[in-house]
Amino acid sequence: MHTLNYSKKLHVDRFNPMLIKQFNNSIFDISLSKHPEYVIILAIKENRKKIASISENPFTNGFLVLTDEDTFHFWKNSTCKKDNNVPMFQETFIIHFHDNLFPANYKEINEFQPISNVLNNASRGIRVIGDSYQLISEKIYNLTQENGINRIIQLYEILDRIGKTEEKIFIGPVCFKSNKAISSKGEILKHIDTYLHNNYLNDISLNEIAKVANMSVSSVCRFFKSKMHKNVFEYLNEIRIAHACRLMINPDLTIAQICYLSGYNSLSNFNNQFKKVIAQSPREFRSSLIND
Questions:
Q1: CA distance 143 to 135
Q2: Helix axes 187-199 and 217-228, enclosed angle (nearest 10)
Q3: Of residues 186 and 126, which shows the higher confidence score?
């Protein structure tokens, strides 16, 4: 038995655009991380031949998830208690791939539309459920047995099925995606963004942001608003609420606990900010995950 610490990056590049890892009898532990490619994660609690359709929200029974490049994601086995009485996933498959596996103009090709659509929406984290979970899980296993061009064809088929099935749910809001455009807007925004992502669980003042940007408080406020079309604290709230949404996956955490673990000191303020960003209350959002 071993723990999968997913913060250790699997290396893919334009010369090796797909990499597959398989683990047996593993505790699945993904810490906060981001990856410059697409990732498919399949974790199976029971023997592969006994895969059952799953629609319940808790991830402890197995899951199939797709995330996109530069997506921040945080899934952690919610039953990993300190008493070492931890359920294991019998098989876990992790597939990293770059979009250079597809034709340069694939988004313009009709036959690639299901794939294009699912990759465009993967920033929210897509979880496959129901009978599609079983069917696509089998295809992922088949992919691991293939080599060469057949492996790529299998990946196409997997993504095509995910794109076409209605048995999938988003496990996070749009704001899960890291703001990739920031890096193209200059080093100042990059520094601010990095500081906010590294410190969003702490109290942050405009004076601190001004120091990071090497500007006056009034100047940094105008600069940030002109580039991002929102003020610093609106953006900070989106980061915190995205983190809160990830924590909602863990059924052992109460909403009050999630509030304080997301950088808020007031439950009422957390509820207001959550509804402002997600257009649902925290309770409604968690119920929608379970009901879907």
A1: 13
A2: 100
A3: 126
Coil/strand/helix, residue 22: strand
Q: Which token pair is 129?
A: 């459920």
CATH number of 2-171: 2.60.120
Question: CB-based burial of residue 10 (10 Å sphere; 0-12 exposed, 13-18 middle, 19+ buried)?
Answer: middle
- Lowest mean per-residue pLDDT among 9-13, 43-47, 95-99: 9-13
Q: Residue 240 belongs to what H/E stretch?
A: helix 232-247
Question: Helix, strand, or coil here: 17?
Answer: coil
- CA 227 remoteness from chain centre: 25
CATH class in words for 179-291: mainly alpha
pTM > 0.70: yes or no: no
* Residue reference for tokens 């610093």: 232
In degrees and rounded to multiples of 5, residue 55 shows phi and psi of -130, -10
pLDDT in tens, 115-126: 998 888 877 778
